[in-house]
Amino acid sequence: MKNHKFFDGKVIWITGASSGIGEALAIKLSAWNTHLILSSRRREELERVKAGLNLRPEDVYVLPLNLGDPTSLEEKAKEAQKVFGRIDILINNGGISQRSRIMETSVETDRKIMEINYFSGVILTKSVMPSMLARGIGHIVAVSSVTGKFGFPLRSAYSASKHAMYGFYESLRAEYSDQGIRTTIICPGRVSTNISLGALGPDGKPQKIMDPGQQYGIPAESCAMDIINGIRKNKRDVYSGGKELLMVYIKRFLPWLAYRLARKVKRI
Q1: pLDDT (tens digit per residue) in 88-147
Q2: I need a surface site. Which of 24, 41, 49, 76 has the fewest CB within 10 A?
Q3: 196 with 209: CB under 8 angstroms?
């Protein structure tokens, strides 16, 4: 891999680092002289990821957290900032998906998805921002989705949470870019991860089903490299995926067609 000096010495905090895109990011970023903080709920999986990285053990810190527990996140952010003395790049990647129709989905499930996908990132971002602003430099990365650009069947709460991310992080960019804060929003399409296995079904529990579209999506490693290149180039938005990304442009230029196509989707 080409040695991008941009990442040398950077302290990077990745949520959702125990699998999928988060794990792929950790592996790719460990090719450089980075300091990584890895977070998710499962300590044992984070330790597994850490063991496979191309970094000294002291350059990787495992920080388990629960994105669904907002009362704990500020303390976790304080701990993260003490480990290496700062956070240079925060990658809000952790999240949960959904596979249920609107009237099958309880408000409790709607709130849970918003808490994990949206509010957790807001809390962590606001927790690390003061230090970044004091130093006049920092990069906030938010992993949204193509469904953050348009509504989609069986994804009402998930799509809403990803739309909310766009509104928040675009506002962040507008307010703080002149104070040294970079903001990049990631818009993955279908990526081959296990996210659909944990997607909440009509009963509010993980459906434990692998969606064919997810299964045959682009490799998580490819998405991770798109994200890394986007961070390095300070891109505002990064799109990563296959032909499904065409829907973003169809929605922009032919909204009537995007609506018609979305209505035909029964399951993915």
Answers
A1: 999 999 999 999 999 999 999 999 999 999 999 999 999 999 999 999 999 999 999 998
A2: 41
A3: yes
Distance in angstroms (rounded) separating the CA atoms of residues 131 and 114: 26
118, 158, 166, 176: which is the annotated catalytic residue?
158
216 labelled catalytic: no
CA-wise closest residue to 119 among 145, 95, 89: 95
**Architecture of the domain whose range is 5-263:** 3-Layer(aba) Sandwich (3.40)
Q: Are 74 and 124 in contact (CB under 8 A)?
A: no
d(CA 205, CA 193): 18
CB-side neighbour CA atoms (13 Å) of 244: 23
Q: What DSSP string describes 36-105?
A: EEEE-S-HHHHHHHHHTSSS-GGGEEE----TT-HHHHHHHHHHHHHHSS--SEEEE-----B-B-GGGS
* Whether residue 203 has pLDDT greater than 60: yes
Q: What is the pLDDT of residues 79-88, one digit of tens each?
A: 999 999 999 9
pTM for the full model? 0.92
What distances in angstroms separate CA 135 from CA 87, 95, 110, 180, 181, one per listed residue?
11, 29, 37, 8, 10
How many other C-beta atoms are found inside a 10 Å radius of the C-beta of residue 10?
19
Continuous H helices in 180-265:
212-215, 220-232, 246-253, 255-263
Q: Which of 110, 92, 94, 93 shows the shortest CA–CA distance to 102?
A: 110
Question: What DSSP element (H or E) covers 17?
Answer: none
**Structural domain spans, the chain:** 5-263
